[in-house]
């Protein structure tokens, strides 16, 4: 018994232009395409293609890996060194993007949320965060006032300023210089903008640059990508 099937139905490709022919004796070694190409060779080629596709997918996933600081309603880093600001890590009023909670920041003038990887970073470099391989600081923010302006800075171990601070993150955020009140905007700040001199860091800050005596905004899904 023999059967040929057109390639359009098999989706295998030009190598099987005339379809597949199955031998009646059930011998795998005897299986051939209708054009005479041994089935084992086809199987090998298909296996190679699948391995190649799998490797490409692995590389793509690795390239998109995020090291989270606050994710899915949880503060992943272990130390809060916020200044002129109070962080509520269990807030729900901001309507979290992901998970059960977001961060509500209540600030005084020029205050900022300042997470640190670990107090141990002050003692050993191994406990610090190595930004090598990461390109972007990402976060989502929701303002409660018009023309909200955010700032950011990065510090290495010993509270040493690293690179330069950024006083206006508007160019890196979806809401620009006047993000909509009460709506989440996404921000992606290239680490190259900070001009870091030391890629191994202790902490960073995301703060209020409006200068208001009292302000409130929300943060969610913060990390390095």
Mind explaining what this structure looks like?
- With 225 residues, this protein is mainly beta.
- The protein folds into 2 domains: 7-63, no CATH class; 67-224, Galactose-binding lectin (Jelly Rolls).
- The protein has 2 helices and 16 strands.
- The chain has helices at 7-10, 39-63; strands at residues 20-21, 32-33, 67-71, 74-75, 79-80, 83-91, 102-113, 115-116, 129-130, 136-143, 150-156, 160-161, 185-190, 200-201, 203-208, 214-224.
- Strands 3, 4, 6, 7, 10, 11, 12, 13, 15 and 16 form a 10-stranded antiparallel sheet that branches.
- Strand 11 (150-156) and strand 12 form a beta hairpin.
- The protein is globular.
- The chain starts with 6 loop residues before the first helix and ends with a strand.
- 28% of the residues are buried.
Uncertain spans = 1-35, 46-63
Structural class: mainly beta
CATH class of the largest domain: Mainly Beta
Order of helices and strands: HEEHEEEEEEEEEEEEEE
Number of strands: 16
Instruction: Quickly count the helices.
Output: 2
Can you tell me the CATH superfamily of the largest domain?
Galactose-binding lectin
- Overall pLDDT confidence: 82
Percent range for helical residues?
A: 10-25%
Strand content: 35-45%
Instruction: Indicate the radius of gyration in whole angstroms.
Output: 27 Å
> How many distinct domains?
2
* CATH topology label of the largest domain: Jelly Rolls
CATH architecture of the largest domain: Sandwich
- The coarse overall form would be globular
Q: Please describe the biggest sheet, giving its number of strands, its sense, and whether it closes into a barrel.
A: 10 strands, antiparallel
Distance between the first and last residues' Cα: 57 Å
């Amino acid at each position: 018994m023999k059967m040929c099937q057109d390639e359009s139905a098999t989706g295998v490709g030009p190598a099987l232009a005339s379809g597949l022919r199955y031998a009646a004796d059930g011998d795998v070694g005897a299986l051939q395409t209708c054009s005479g190409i041994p089935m084992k060779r086809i199987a090998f080629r298909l296996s190679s293609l699948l391995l190649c596709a799998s490797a490409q997918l692995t590389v793509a996933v690795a390239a998109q890996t995020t090291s989270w600081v606050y994710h899915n309603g949880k503060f992943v880093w272990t130390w809060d060194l916020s200044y002129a600001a109070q962080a509520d890590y269990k807030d729900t009023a901001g309507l979290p993007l992901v998970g059960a909670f977001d961060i509500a920041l209540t600030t005084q003038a020029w205050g900022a949320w300042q997470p640190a990887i670990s107090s141990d970073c002050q003692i050993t470099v191994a406990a610090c965060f190595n930004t090598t391989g990461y390109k972007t600081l990402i976060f989502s923010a929701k303002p409660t006032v018009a023309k909200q302006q955010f700032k950011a800075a990065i510090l290495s171990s010993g509270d040493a300023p690293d690179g330069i601070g950024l006083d206006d993150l508007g160019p890196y955020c979806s809401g620009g210089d006047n993000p909509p009140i009460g709506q989440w905007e996404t921000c992606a700040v290239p680490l190259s903008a900070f001009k870091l001199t030391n890629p191994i860091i202790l902490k960073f800050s995301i703060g209020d640059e409006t200068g208001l005596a009292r302000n409130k905004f929300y943060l969610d899904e913060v990390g390095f990508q």
